[in-house]
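Q: I'm building a small set of examples for a reading group on sequence design. Run inverse folding on the following structure and report the sequence directly after it, with nothing in between.
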């Protein structure tokens, strides 16, 4: 049987056969079935069969040359960076504005920026005074957080890292709630069991922040895929830094999102530093945006200090994600103007000249100048907004510090509807230890 197939196909190479015939020849031996003789070819193979390699994943052209791509052989030109407002806050001529920014929205965005700046300054000082244990500012990255938040729908679900307090603030999370969370008092939904700045809100569709890098990215893809199956007409937004893009979860998330067609927007804040590690030591190639097309994902690089550009990029990404039911990657080029956290001293690894140069391009000042040029803002409004924000933050800190702490025993609650035996045993052990060693529990934390 196989001899007859071989005779019929003699003189024809596997590469010259049509796809169906190649599959037939390959399966003849495995199937063990009788195959009819193939007709003699009546014409030359088509140029498409000669010039391209067809395979299950697609089709690529052949070449007689040995053409290397990427790396030192043929470095690719970097993806450009989209912006609409320059470093001085002036309009960029002929910038693409597919989603014009309404006055009311623009003013709300700037007011949120003012409040965020005030929170960062006073909360940072409160931590330095020992009033709570830890804090991270978003200095220099306010436009990335708030510009993107304004372009999302309230029903879109956010999975953030630890520097997106501007996103949850724009969604309506109060400064008082932020203070409660940092102090870990009884009014905080996590009852003091999370580190400060790990905000979350079910009502605002903002998943609670988790410290380990990139774990939120696969979660966002799963949520987006569920939205697709349920036809909700919403997207998931996943925020992360360029340092987190070195984690395996980043690659798994992008690949799952692309193959499943999940409507998720990946927002990378490329601020140049993963704590003390510069971007030059984190990766080679064209930043994070260069990875998107390799996974088959629509990608855009945007000026993360241009609030209007970030708003337009995110609004367009949302449109694409919903219309095409596919992921989108945004890389927001920004700069972390402050220290990584209150546990860090960035002056030990960054030059003062570098920090001064970037602070001169402050995104909040850029957006303020643009608002003034539109006739939507002035100095009097700015002074009033900053004074009001300062009063609100000081009052929130004082109220949160006065609020009682949750009892020690609550650390075992809110996981199961009915506490399982192993947690009951652990709680009894902790309470017995504190009874025997009262100094082991801080004085302001009730035992029961």
């Amino acid at each position: 049987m196989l001899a007859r197939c071989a005779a019929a196909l003699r003189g024809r190479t596997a590469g010259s056969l049509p796809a169906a015939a190649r599959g037939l020849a390959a399966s003849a031996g495995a199937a063990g079935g009788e195959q009819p003789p193939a007709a003699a070819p009546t014409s030359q193979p088509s140029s498409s069969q000669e010039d391209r390699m067809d395979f299950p994943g697609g089709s690529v052209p052949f070449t007689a040359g040995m053409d290397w791509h990427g790396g030192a052989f043929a470095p690719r030109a970097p993806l450009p960076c989209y912006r609409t407002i320059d470093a001085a806050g002036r309009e960029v001529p002929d910038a693409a504005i597919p989603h014009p920014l309404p006055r009311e929205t623009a003013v709300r965005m700037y007011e949120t920026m003012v409040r965020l700046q005030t929170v960062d300054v006073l909360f940072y000082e409160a931590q330095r005074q020992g009033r709570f244990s830890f804090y991270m500012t978003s200095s220099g990255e306010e436009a990335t957080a708030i510009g993107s938040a304004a372009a999302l729908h309230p029903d879109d679900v956010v999975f953030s890292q630890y520097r997106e307090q501007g996103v949850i603030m724009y969604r309506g999370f109060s400064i008082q709630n932020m203070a409660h969370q940092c102090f870990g008092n009884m009014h905080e939904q996590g009852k003091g069991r999370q580190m400060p700045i790990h905000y979350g809100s079910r009502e605002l569709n903002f998943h609670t922040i988790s410290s380990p890098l990139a774990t939120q990215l696969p979660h966002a893809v799963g949520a987006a895929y569920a939205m697709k199956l349920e036809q909700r007409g919403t997207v998931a937004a996943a925020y992360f830094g360029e340092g987190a893009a070195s984690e395996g979860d980043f690659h798994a998330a992008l690949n799952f999102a692309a193959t499943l067609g999940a409507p998720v927007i990946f927002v990378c804040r490329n601020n140049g530093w993963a704590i003390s590690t510069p971007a030059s030591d984190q990766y080679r190639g064209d930043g994070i945006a260069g990875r998107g097309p390799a996974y088959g994902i629509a990608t855009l690089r945007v000026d993360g200090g241009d609030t209007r550009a970030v708003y337009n990029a995110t609004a367009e990404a949302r449109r694409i994600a919903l219309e095409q039911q596919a992921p989108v990657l945004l890389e927001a080029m920004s700069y972390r103007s402050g220290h990584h956290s209150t546990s860090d001293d960035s002056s030990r690894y960054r030059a003062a000249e570098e920090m001064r140069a970037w602070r001169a391009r402050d995104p909040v000042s850029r957006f303020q100048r643009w608002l003034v040029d539109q006739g939507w803002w002035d100095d009097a409004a700015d002074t009033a907004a900053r004074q009001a924000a300062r009063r609100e933050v000081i009052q929130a800190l004082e109220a949160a510090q006065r609020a009682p702490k949750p009892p020690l025993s609550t650390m075992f609650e809110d996981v199961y509807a009915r506490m399982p035996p192993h947690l009951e045993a652990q709680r009894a052990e902790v309470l017995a230890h504190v009874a025997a060693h009262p100094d082991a529990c801080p004085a302001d934390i009730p035992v029961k």
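Residues 146 and 213 are 21 Å apart (CA to CA).
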